[in-house]
Amino acid sequence: HYFILALCKRIKCVDGKPLEEKVCIIPGKTIFGNNFDVLNVTPGKLFELTRGWAKFSRGRSYVLHFLSTSIYNIINAEDIEELFQSQTLTTKGIMYDFLQPFLGNGLLMSHEEKWHLRRRILTPAFHFNILQTFNEIFKEESLKLLEKLNYLQHDRINVNDFINEFSLNNVCETALGVKLTGIAGDIEYRAAIHNVEAIIVERACNPLMYYETIFYLFGQYKKSKHYVEITHNFSDKIINKKRREFLQNGNRCNIDKENSYAKTRYALLDTLLIHEAQGLIDHQGICEEVDTFMFEGYDTTSTCLKFALLNLAQYPDIQKRCYQEIENLTAFENLTVFDFNKLEYLGCVIKETLRMYPPVPFIGRQCIKETVLNGLILPRNAQVNIHIIDIMRDPKHFPEPSVFKPDRFLAENTRNMHPFAFVPFSAGSRNCIGQKFAMLEIKAALVAILRNYRVLPVTHTKDLSLEYGIILRTKQNIFIKLKPRVI
Ligand code: HEM
């Protein structure tokens, strides 16, 4: 009874009971459903608004009614289980359409047959053997990061000044196999990603802008196109550099002759070029995958690293325990993937950081046909938003959810954890393909930093306002202080 002009098809209960018995219905601020609730809110306000809805619903998943769509918002582990196990609810939500000009239909965005084929092709590119070779690059880049830190003012360092470059270098050198030295434009690329995202969030907050024509005429279409071009020009340079090397090395001929590629594992871009040679993917396909992996592989890990440093700085006792775990390790250059995997407490610190500050705070799906989920009948085109951040801040599974407690992730404390309570990398068939890659990269950087420096606080969590977007951001920069360790 709250809405008159929200024209969306309603969600119903399978058993015919009133909807509000199963989920919370968020009352709209006007008679038009929730249409105007998010109108022109900033990413910071959007964060507050969505946390406010979670609080209002007292942990129950909730429904919003927009212009022509109902949105089922899942905020707890119990309700996400069925979706993550579903083989049908895998099509990404309407919001992802806004990312399409930037990422095309790469692995993140594609669905059905195209997604199956690509995921099958690309999974071996993240196999353990490949990660072992990536480990050497992560260590090399971590040492370069330390060199860079030498030149920065230790009393007040903006984490953006060294983490962003580290993270982009890593994904380009490992997955894409291309060193960025000699390729101009990485700084502009990073800034452009930020701007593309800001426009997408702004667009998402205005249901009228969902219509392409309205966005084209009255939205930030031109600006968005400009920034997307910057990102594509940069990724083109990377692909061209690799293609030249690939052809010069005669890889294609060798592989064709020996017909042995099927058994051998290659890094991502090599894999794509090999499949191009076989006619299984075209240039356009390569571009969309490279854009997808650069974006997913860069911004996510750098965000986690920044929050991890913020936490370590604020909790000296926790930092000390991490240091005790790593101080007697062999020389950094000799550390293997096994050594990094054995760092249980550091792993707990990273997990707790991901729990409290998930780099991807929410994801979305849509129903391509009428779908039954959690006892609800979701009409065709209904959207399902999965608020990863709320799921992982549920006090039922994580008592005192706002307190940073890495011990929750010690083996003895996770035995009875709900399988979908901790889902920073999503779960099920569309989970993150790069999660082991990310954990290894983050550990390498933290071990390098903590072995050489004590991290001290400048910025405190209470000084930060979080912003909701494709990636979780802070309105303010995060600063830390570094004190060299005397060994
Ligand atoms: C801390 C770091 C990371 C976090 C928190 C993270 C999180 C996620 C999440 C939540 C998804 C699901 C997205 C959705 O359903 O819409 C996802 C998918 C994906 N991630 Fe990550 N990710 C991280 C690092 C990486 C890295 C390092 C790479 C690649 C090098 C990567 C590549 C991808 C790709 C390609 C997908 C789409 C997979 C598919 O749909 O088959 N991610 N990631």
TrEMBL record:
UniProt entry keywords in alphabetical sequence: Heme, Iron, Metal-binding, Monooxygenase, Oxidoreductase, Signal
Q: Superkingdom, according to UniProt? A: Eukaryota
Q: Which GO terms describe its molecular function?
A: heme binding; iron ion binding; monooxygenase activity; oxidoreductase activity, acting on paired donors, with incorporation or reduction of molecular oxygen
> Which Pfam family is one of this chain's hits?
p450
Q: Cofactors per UniProt?
A: heme
Q: Which residues bind heme?
A: C432
* Functional description taken from the UniProt entry: May be involved in the metabolism of insect hormones and in the breakdown of synthetic insecticides.
Per the similarity annotation, which family is this?
A: Belongs to the cytochrome P450 family.
Record protein name field = Probable cytochrome P450 4ac1
List the taxonomic lineage.
Eukaryota, Metazoa, Ecdysozoa, Arthropoda, Hexapoda
Gene name in the database record: LOC119634215
